[in-house]
Amino acid sequence: MVLLPVALSVTRPGTQAACQLAAYDLRMDRFDLVVIGAGVAGEAATHYARSKGASVAVIDRALFGGSCPFWACMPSKALLHAAAVHHAGGDYPWTKASDFRDYMINRTKTDEPDDSGHVASLEEAGATVIRGSATVAGAGRVRVGDRELAAGAVVLAIGSVSRVPDLPGLAEAHPWTNVEGTSARQLPRSLVILGGGPTGVELAQVYARYDVPVTLVHPRKRVHDKEHPRSSDLLGKALERDGVTLRLGARARRVRAGEGADGAHVVELGDDETAEGHEIMIAVGRDLPLDGLGLESIGVTPDRGRLSPDERLRIAENVYLAGDVAGPEMHTHLGHYTGEAVARIALGDGDYRPFLDAIPRATYTDPETASVGLLLDQAKERGIDAAEYTVDIGTSAKGYTVEAEGHCTIVVDRAERVLVGAFLAGPAVSEVIHECVLAIRSRVPLATLADTIHAFPTAARVLGTAFIDADRDLQAH
Fold this sequence. Notes:
Number of domains: 3
Structural class: alpha/beta
Radius of gyration: 24 Å
Largest sheet: 8 strands, mixed
Shape: globular
Helix content: 25-40%
Number of helices: 15
Distance between the termini: 69 Å
């Protein structure tokens, strides 16, 4: 237990957090920052605060490190790599892929990964690490079991959980979520995936490339439909080449567990159509674990399972959101960014505002997709005089040399002559997209982007051609 007198608080004298902290019962454990949730956002907030000398308690009821290193980003990317090598004819059977994945998530002797490295890192930074379920108990107070903590500020970095729809018969089929999908040690005999977003398409490709019959059910007319239609179309065709059966514009209505061929589960899609799989994986979105968090004690009521922070990611006095719960999207890199941002604000930098208009998105399928900013229609809806320009990667030197398809599509504000969106698909585009992130973040003039040298032959060079085409077109008009 760490007992810190008020005099040790690094919160700037005169701030509301410091005044509030001084009013607490002197017998209570006191911290400048109490972080609920030790995923990437909570870790980032903790490490930043400790680097500034603040006292921090960080609490989690599950794995320290969160989903990304154990059930999401790291295992899925490890499996995508193994599946790509196997698909190309390399020596990567599933047993080797499973062992590699287990190594990456530090899971060797049990089914549960070992998070001791994350705990050690936080403790070495000087944070107080607490395992347990935390509840906000009022302004500046957090309760964990029978222990109560006084906080100059509270950061809610609680992550998210897989949304499981209320489908008749689904529970009897014992469905997978991303946890089972990224941690299976045995290949399923067949698999139905409900949801064609990033998780659905990545794991569909993994299992299809290991010759598992995969059916992907998605209610929209194209997979990964929040991306540009060109990206979605390329990815859909690639999945079909890998053997995935796409059932687009279809929605699961009910499940008949074990009633299909050879004991497979039957998913009814309506109009007498069905899909069958020995396992069903749910990838239809994420929910926030807000129940029991004690938000009512600070006067906060969720709206349809979501919270609405202000521009400083605050929902109440000295209570901040970081990571998935903060939005506006759910990404590991965004969690890290908002974690550091709220720690910075909570510790006294009240003038700082996080910039959330240039969030990169990347999906690591083959082909990769990546994007940032606004689609053409979205830009026009905001009143922007927008235009779109596209260059094909498949007919470029990059496409020819690596035998790959793809595109670089940019959305430009014609009045301001700056980039407002970029949507890419093809080789290495998850790396290329960051030039566009910086361009939107800093409002780099289109003429400067067009006058920038890009190495040949790269996907970035194709992007550079899109900049040149757009700049020349605008100059001509």
